[in-house]
Structures are given as structure tokens and as C-alpha cells.
């Protein structure tokens, strides 16, 4: 008899838990440890700030939003484990990837198979969104950045001889592919092509090659922890060629390269001149948590939440299919990263591409770039 | 001019590798331990040096404190970790050493932060040494010069001082040396101290060149250091120095000519295999 009472009580309490108004759960994975831990921290804190703002304003659909954060260590294998866990828990209604291309690519097909809306906030490899109709992009494609840079060099800078130095991973190769696809029509030629591994910080041989190339412009695609040492070693060798770059819009880049960073152009970044009225408060919130090392990462992490929240509101439901449809019909949404005009049929963002330039130790807005799109 | 540039960067890095990995050679010569945790002393030196330099504004003070910190840590690693397991088979101290490396790297992460430290007023940012069309950054000269001077001091010390003679005696005949009144324990501490000090200087120089020191900066020399002492003939100082130069130059040309296909550490591995096929005992005479 006693046992039956205990069982009944347990049953009742279980019912009580399930019938309570559940929070809306959004999943997220980012490299919180490992080589990209600084970026992961930037993304996590920005996402928490964005969700905190939503909850302070009453949440979504009358419910609080709860964030589930997972550490993918920047590795594909970890991302697969995380994706399987999120899918089998079946609690999240949408997942955001604030991570690199390898882990995001690895997880995307699992979320697609489970029909779980998935926003790749940062990763820029073209294959990620090709996985299926539940996978959306949050930022500009690597190929588009690379191609638009070629156009900018030809049309705005009026230069033609380019040396290109890219990181040897998915991001670097998509920049390179875009650049090569666009350069022919623009009359731009490559006089030198170099790549470096994620761990590389010593660029003596690359700098020797750059000096030999004597290009009009050097295009660097990589991350702050390589870009900082690379740019300072280029300038230290007395090479004064203008530098344009993708992926270096992190405060930490300026901190490392110091005076060598002055005049470096950064593709697809508004930097410190962001026109969003909420931007100063966002920066203050980041500063309060000592998370200003990679503000660009933070901006696009915040943007992914903006996109997700907007879609959930318009869907008016936690039904994943409705949220997916709402994501696909996103229109003129102001985010921390610009104004998302709409999504293409391939779920890539259509958005203007700003250019910034390092001036007096800050990222200053320097107009917009013409957008180049890869042939469909 | 391109090949001259490659050669200069290769020689500068070769000298730097020699300085950074000399501790591995010293320790292996005395104790037959593959002291891979040595890489953490390189990082420790860099962190402490940059931190003190930023705080005090004096590079010399930063360098001295960095050397002291690395010497203390190097001797502590010997006293606390290696001393009690010297009689174990070689893989035991190797695994312990690997553990120390991982422990210290994560320690740096906690103490100095994930994003590492940058030098606030780097004197080498734009300091170029120019002759005609030819221009190199002063840090390369400092790297090569610093390595050559510190190595010359060490060689002089080993060959002409009483302590140096005691050290060489201990390396070749430890038991006999002890019987002749050489304080073997003191010799060991001296080896750890000298090697750690050189690693700290190398760490500070690389930090100045990159203007960045990260918790895993020591990976530059960790596994490559093993390649260097094997190439050099285990425990042989001249051999290790030549091996370091060969490796630095091979890397520089390798990355310059085939960098799109292979990375730095792959070139070290290829150099190791190629050299061992020609000289199965390494470049210098192995001390077995």
C-alpha cells in the first residue's frame, strides 16, 4: 500500500512538471574551450545578453526563453555528439551554431534530418546551407566575402596585382575560391598565393614571398590570432603594401598588431561605428563582462538570436516547421550586424557589405562594398 | 633576394630552436629523460617576461624575472616530479613530463587568460635594419645573436670551468664522477637551471616577434624539440645545435616553396626521417 502511494505521488508530480508552462528552449554550440575559446566566450556572452534582453521585455510568445549552451571545442566530432544529444532530448525548438565551419558542417545534417531549425551564425562554408531547408546562415558567405574583395580591389582601390594569404581550413579555402572565381572578370591577377595552418604564428617564409611578389594589395583571410602576428611581421619587414582582410574584425587583432594594424581594411565589418541604436548598450554590456576580445563574433552571435526571435514571433508558435517557414520569409530585419534584407532560396543572407578600416586603434566605418555573388 | 630572405629567417629560427631546446639536450644527456615539459618553461618565460615588461616598462627587468621564474619552475619540476621516478623505465618520466606540460598549459590559461598577452610598447614593431634593397627586422638579428651568445657562454662554461668539467664528467661517467667527489645533484640542478633560462629567453624573443604569447605558445618547440635532440644525436650539444639550424632552414625553405601543401611540423618530421636514414645515430655522436 505504502509503495502504491509513493508511486502515485511520483506520477502526480511528474504530471505537474509536464503541465507547467514550459520555457522556450534555444540550443547553442560554440567553442568554449580549445583553440577558439576566446571566440566561443565572445559568442556565448553576446547570446546571453541578447536572450536576457528578450526575457526582460516579456519573453517570446508569453514564455521565457532558456538557453542551452554546449561546448563543441571547435571540433566536428564534438559537434556531432552535441547535435545527437539536442535532437534526442527533443526540447529545443531551434539551434544556433556560433562556431567554425568544421563543427557546423558536421552538425548541420543531423539537425536537418531531425527537422530542427538551425542557424549557422558564424561559419561561412558554402556546403553548410546546402544540407537542407532547415539550415540557415546568419552571416556573409566566405565565397561572397572573397569575391566582393576582388571586385573592391579592382573597382574601388583600382589595383590589379594581388598576393593572397589564407588560413588552411574551410573558411580560408572558401575565401580563396570566391576571390579566384571573381578576379578574372575584374582584371585582377594573383602574383602570390600562400596558406598557413591554424597553429602558425611565425610567418618568415610568407613575408619573404610577399616581399618578392611586390603586389599592389595583400589580401589576408584568417583569424585575429594569426592575422595579428602576420600583419605585424609584414610591416616589421618594411613592406608597406596596402592590406585588405577578411576575418580580422576582432579588437584583439588591433591589440596584437598595434601600429602595424593602422590602415588595414576589414571586409564585412562595421566595427566600432555600428549604426544600430542598441549598439552602445550592447558594447557596454560586453565590456562589463570583459568580453570585448572579438566583438565581431559577438555581433553575429547576437544577430542569430535577433533572427531566431523574429521568426518565432512571426510563427506565433513553437512548431519547428512554422519557425522554419518564418525564418525563410525574414524581411528587412535590423540586427546587430546590419539589416538582413531577406534570405535567398538557398537560405543565404542578402545584406549589404560594409568595409571598415583600422584608424587610431579602432575599427572605423569606411563605406560599403559592391557585392559579388557566386554563379548559382 | 627571396632565397636570401628565406635563408635569414631559417637561420634566425634555427638559432632560436637551438636556444629553446638546449634544455632538452642537457637533461637528456644527464638523466635520459625526454623532458617535454620544457616547452612549458618557454611559455612561462614568455608570459612572465611580457607581463613584467608591460608593468615595469623595462625589457631587461622583464627578461631577468622571466629567467628567474623559468629557472625556479625548471628546478621544481626536477625536484617534485623527476627525482622520485629516475629509476623507472624511460616512458614513466616521459608520461609524467607530458602531464606537467598539459597541467602548466592549462595553468597559464587560468592565470593569464585564454587570449594571452600582448606587448604594450613593442620596441621591435617597425625596427628594421636596412642595407640598400635589403632589409630585415632587428628581432631576427636579436634572435640569432642572443642564441649564439648564450650558446657560446654555455660552451665556454662546459669546457673551461670546474663546474663545466664536473658536468661533462657526470654526463659520461655518473658513478665515477660521484666517486671523485662531484656533487651529482648540484650538476643536475645546474643543467635544469641553464636549460630553463635559455628557454625563457627564447620565449620572450618569440613573444616580441609575434607580439603575442598564448597558453599553447610552447607547442612551437614541444614535439619539434624531440626531433632536434634525436637529429642531433641524443644528448649531444653540438649535434643539437647543427640539427636546429638544419631544421630552421629546412622549415623556412619548405614553407616558402611548398607551404601550400605541408605545414611546419610536417617538414620537421620529414627532416627527421630523412636525416635518420642517412645518419642512423643522428648528426652528432649519440651519448648512449
CATH class of the largest domain in chain A: Alpha Beta
Low-confidence stretches of chain B: none
Strand order of the largest sheet of chain A: 7-6-8-9-10-14-15
Proper CATH architecture of the largest domain in chain A = 3-Layer(aba) Sandwich
Which protein chains are joined by the largest interface, and how many residues does each one contribute? A-B, 39 and 44 residues
Given this structure, which CATH class of chain B is correct? Mainly Alpha
Helix content of chain A: 40-55%
The figure for the number of domains of chain A is: 2
Q: Compute the gyration radius of chain B: what is it?
A: 19 Å
- Low-confidence stretches of chain A at least 5 residues in length (pLDDT < 50)? 7-20
Class computed from helices, strands and strand pairing of chain A: alpha/beta
N-C termini distance of chain B: 43 Å
Share of residues in strands of chain A: 15-25%
* Series of H and E elements of chain B: HHHHEEHHHHHHH
Report the mean per-residue pLDDT of chain A as an integer: 90
User: How many independent structural domains of chain B?
Assistant: 1
Outline type of chain A: globular
Amino acid at each position: 500500500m505504502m509503495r502504491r502511494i509513493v508511486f502515485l505521488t511520483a506520477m502526480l508530480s511528474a504530471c505537474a512538471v509536464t503541465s507547467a508552462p514550459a520555457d522556450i528552449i534555444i540550443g547553442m554550440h560554440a567553442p568554449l574551450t580549445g583553440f577558439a575559446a576566446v571566440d566561443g566566450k565572445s559568442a556565448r556572452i553576446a547570446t546571453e545578453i541578447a536572450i536576457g534582453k528578450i526575457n526582460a521585455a516579456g519573453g517570446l510568445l508569453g514564455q521565457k526563453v532558456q538557453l542551452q549552451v554546449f561546448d563543441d571545442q571547435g571540433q566536428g566530432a564534438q559537434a556531432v555528439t552535441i547535435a545527437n544529444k539536442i535532437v534526442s532530448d527533443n526540447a529545443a525548438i531551434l539551434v544556433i551554431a556560433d562556431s567554425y565551419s568544421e563543427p557546423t558542417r558536421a552538425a548541420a545534417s543531423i539537425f536537418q534530418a531531425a527537422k530542427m531549425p538551425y542557424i549557422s551564425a558564424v561559419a561561412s562554408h558554402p556546403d553548410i546551407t546546402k544540407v537542407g531547408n532547415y539550415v540557415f546562415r546568419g552571416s556573409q558567405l566566405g565565397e561572397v566575402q572573397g569575391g566582393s574583395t576582388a571586385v573592391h580591389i579592382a573597382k574601388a582601390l583600382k589595383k590589379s596585382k594581388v598576393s593572397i594569404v589564407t588560413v588552411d581550413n574551410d573558411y580560408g579555402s572558401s575565401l580563396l575560391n570566391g576571390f579566384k572565381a571573381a578576379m578574372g572578370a575584374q582584371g585582377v591577377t594573383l602574383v602570390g598565393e600562400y596558406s598557413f595552418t591554424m597553429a602558425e604564428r611565425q610567418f618568415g617564409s610568407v613575408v619573404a614571398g610577399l616581399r618578392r611578389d611586390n603586389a599592389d594589395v595583400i589580401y589576408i583571410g584568417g583569424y585575429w590570432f594569426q592575422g595579428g602576428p602576420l600583419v605585424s611581421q609584414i610591416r616589421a619587414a618594411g613592406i608597406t603594401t596596402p592590406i585588405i582582410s577578411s576575418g580580422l574584425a576582432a579588437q584583439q587583432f588591433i591589440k596584437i598588431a598595434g601600429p602595424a594594424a593602422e590602415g588595414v581594411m576589414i571586409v564585412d565589418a562595421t566595427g566600432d561605428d555600428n549604426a544600430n541604436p542598441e549598439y552602445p548598450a550592447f558594447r557596454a554590456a560586453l565590456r562589463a563582462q570583459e568580453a570585448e576580445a572579438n566583438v565581431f563574433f559577438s555581433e553575429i552571435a547576437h544577430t542569430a538570436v535577433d533572427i531566431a526571435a523574429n521568426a518565432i514571433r512571426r510563427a506565433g508558435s513553437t512548431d519547428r516547421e512554422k519557425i522554419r517557414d518564418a525564418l525563410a520569409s525574414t524581411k528587412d530585419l535590423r540586427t546587430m550586424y546590419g539589416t538582413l534584407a531577406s534570405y535567398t532560396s538557398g537560405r543565404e543572407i542578402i545584406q549589404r557589405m560594409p568595409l571598415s578600416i583600422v584608424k587610431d586603434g579602432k575599427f572605423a566605418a569606411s563605406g560599403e562594398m559592391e557585392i559579388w555573388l557566386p554563379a548559382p | 633576394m627571396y632565397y636570401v630572405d628565406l635563408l635569414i629567417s631559417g637561420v634566425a629560427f634555427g638559432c632560436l630552436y637551438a636556444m629553446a631546446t638546449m634544455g632538452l639536450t642537457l637533461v637528456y644527456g644527464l638523466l635520459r629523460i625526454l623532458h617535454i615539459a620544457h616547452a612549458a618553461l618557454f611559455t612561462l618565460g614568455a608570459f612572465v617576461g611580457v607581463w613584467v615588461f608591460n608593468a615595469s616598462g623595462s625589457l631587461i627587468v622583464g627578461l631577468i624575472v622571466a629567467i628567474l621564474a623559468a629557472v625556479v619552475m625548471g628546478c621544481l619540476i626536477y625536484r617534485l616530479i623527476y627525482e622520485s621516478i629516475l629509476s623507472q623505465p624511460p616512458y614513466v618520466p616521459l608520461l609524467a613530463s607530458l602531464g606537467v606540460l598539459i597541467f602548466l598549459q592549462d595553468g597559464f590559461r587560468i592565470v593569464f587568460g585564454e587570449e594571452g598577452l600582448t606587448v604594450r610598447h613593442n620596441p621591435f614593431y617597425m625596427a628594421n635594419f636596412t642595407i640598400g634593397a635589403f632589409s630585415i627586422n632587428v628581432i631576427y638579428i636579436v634572435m640569432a645573436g642572443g642564441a649564439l651568445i648564450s650558446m657560446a657562454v654555455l660552451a665556454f662554461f662546459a669546457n673551461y670551468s670546474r663546474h663545466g668539467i664536473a658536468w661533462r664528467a657526470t654526463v659520461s661517467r655518473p658513478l665515477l664522477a660521484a666517486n671523485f667527489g662531484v656533487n651529482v645533484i648540484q650538476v643536475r640542478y645546474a643543467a635544469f637551471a641553464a636549460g630553463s633560462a635559455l628557454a625563457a629567453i627564447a620565449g620572450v624573443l618569440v613573444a616580441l616577434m609575434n607580439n603575442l604569447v598564448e597558453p599553447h605558445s610552447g607547442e612551437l618547440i614541444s614535439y619539434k624539440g624531440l626531433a632536434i635532440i634525436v637529429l642531433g644525436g641524443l644528448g649531444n650539444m653540438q649535434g643539437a645545435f647543427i640539427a636546429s639550424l638544419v631544421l630552421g632552414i629546412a622549415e623556412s625553405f619548405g614553407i616558402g616553396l611548398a607551404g601550400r601543401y605541408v605545414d611546419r611540423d610536417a617538414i620537421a618530421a620529414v627532416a627527421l626521417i630523412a636525416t635518420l636514414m642517412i645518419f642512423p645515430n643522428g648528426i652528432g655522436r649519440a651519448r648512449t
